[in-house]
Design a protein that fits this description.
Distance between the termini: 18 Å
Largest sheet: none
Radius of gyration: 16 Å
Structural class: mainly alpha
Helix content: over 70%
Number of helices: 4
């Protein structure tokens, strides 16, 4: 339970940190018009990662076969939600210039690497405990 709360709080801190550092970088480079987009995308990615962590941590208390399945489902749900976000962002909101694509995929990469590393760390710790 403690690792679950730590992962959730770390995800929220990561989202806030990306918003802060990204806002500072955008202000330094004179791209203030992208601040709202950075806020929306960072918040959306944070919510998606929290949903993935909830699914993943539900599976940690299950049998090893179910735990593996929950891990795969967690990553699958993450990618599905991010593809829905991408479709909405690029097609519905018509944010298809290179700046928007760059912001989207940098955030996608950062949050994906964080989720994968946290899942691998939890699985490694669980396998060492048995």
């Amino acid at each position: 339970m403690i690792s679950f709360l730590r992962n959730i709080l770390t995800t929220i801190a990561l989202g806030c940190g990306i918003i802060g550092i990204g806002s500072l970088a955008l202000l330094i480079f004179g791209a203030e018009k992208y601040l709202f987009d950075l806020l929306i995308l960072s918040s959306a990615f944070t919510i998606i990662i929290v949903i993935s962590f909830v699914i993943f941590h539900k599976g940690l208390s299950k049998a090893p076969q179910s735990s593996f399945l929950y891990s795969i489902i967690s990553i699958g749900v993450k990618f599905l939600l991010e593809m829905i976000l991408a479709i909405f962002w690029f097609i519905s909101a018509k944010k298809s210039s290179i700046e928007f694509v760059l912001i989207f995929f940098v955030l996608f990469l950062a949050f994906t690497l964080y989720l994968i590393s946290a899942i691998l760390k939890a699985l490694k710790k669980k396998s060492l405990q048995k």
